[in-house]
Design a protein that fits this description.
Blueprint (H helix, E strand, L loop, with lengths): L6 E7 L11 E7 L3 H10 L6 E4 L5 E3 L4 E7 L7 E3 L5 E4 L4 H10 L2 E2 L11 H7 L2 E2 L2 E2 L4 E8 L4 E4 L5 E3 L2 E3 L4 E8 L2 E2 L2 H18 L19 H7 L6 E2 L2 E3 L7 E3 L5 H19 L8 E3 L5
Helix pairs in contact: 2-4
């Protein structure tokens, strides 16, 4: 067994790793040195050890009771990104989506501009088939690298996954290590300008200066979650320190004192009100994990 180079933290508060700035303790949090170190770390674990992966901590609500087992944090790690000989882009799971968008544009490749509007890492985008501004992650995926509980790395094609709107079904106990993206050659300057426009639109319509997770609910068929919440007159409605954004109704912001319980209770309240008034059961896009506080 190779010597591990990463950092292992015990009883680590997860609030500082999540974009909502809430969440209890992780029994163990591992920050890998690089991809190879992560593979060695996974090999060192008991086969039945629960493992949870976290990138930028967006699209994620960690409950106040925290997460049992081991959390792997890839933020600032698994950050390699390069253009391959066949023109595809190799990108590891820890690279922020916004960096991928800019890198592809600089290389004169189009169709990845939408990634600039996703506030997470490539690993998270793969896991949830993240999308923004009409683009969707798995439309540009050529192949992925997966890591299993034994520390083995395998290649997978999109055909090995059940790809849906904001969700992916894959084998149990496998995690995304990297992806090869297949893109279309185009005008670099035009792509950079498009990214600039998307980011300006995002800043105008979303509460980017407040702690949030991004969109809380999936859009129902033929409608928008934000529209349904707004016509339910829930903009500005709050529970504890959690508040439905005045700027975008599908965002819940932490006004400074929110707990994970406040946020989850507000999510439940919004769902109940929208279903009661409009007969639509909103489905959450945000991933809620961990245990209730005892």
């Amino acid at each position: 067994m190779a010597e591990l180079k990463g950092r292992l933290l015990i009883n680590e508060p997860l609030a500082k790793y999540t974009s909502w700035r809430v969440g209890g303790l992780a029994d163990r949090l591992y920050i890998p040195f690089d991809k190879q170190d992560l593979c060695e770390f996974i090999k060192s674990l008991s086969p039945d050890e629960p493992v949870f992966w976290m990138g930028l901590g967006s699209n994620l609500l960690v409950r106040d009771g925290g997460i049992r087992g081991t959390v792997v944090n890839t933020k600032g790690r698994l950050k390699e990104m390069r253009m391959l000989d066949d023109g595809s882009i190799y990108v590891e799971a820890g690279v922020p989506c916004a960096h991928v968008a800019r890198f592809c544009a600089d290389k004169g490749l189009t169709d990845a501009e939408f990634l600039a509007g996703i506030p997470g890492t490539m690993g998270g985008a793969l896991k949830m088939n993240a999308g923004a501004f009409g683009g969707e992650t798995w439309r540009i995926v050529k192949s992925v690298e997966m890591l299993n509980t034994k520390g083995d790395v395998t290649q997978r094609d999109p055909k090995h996954f059940e790809i849906n709107y904001r969700s992916i079904k894959s084998a149990e106990n496998e995690w995304f290590l990297s992806a090869n993206l297949s893109l279309v050659p185009g005008d670099s300057a035009a792509s950079i300008q498009k990214i600039k426009g998307l980011l300006e639109a995002r800043a105008k319509t979303q509460p980017t200066n407040q702690p949030s997770c991004g969109s809380v609910f999936k859009n129902p068929d033929g409608d928008f979650a934000a529209r349904l919440i707004e016509v339910t007159k829930l903009k500005g409605y709050s529970i504890g320190g959690a508040c439905v954004s005045e700027k975008h109704a599908n965002f819940i912001v932490n006004t400074g004192t929110a707990t994970a319980t406040d946020i989850e209770n507000l999510i439940k309240y919004v769902r109940r009100r929208v279903q009661y008034l409009h007969g639509v059961e909103l489905q959450t896009e945000v991933c809620m994990v961990g245990e209730e506080k005892a």
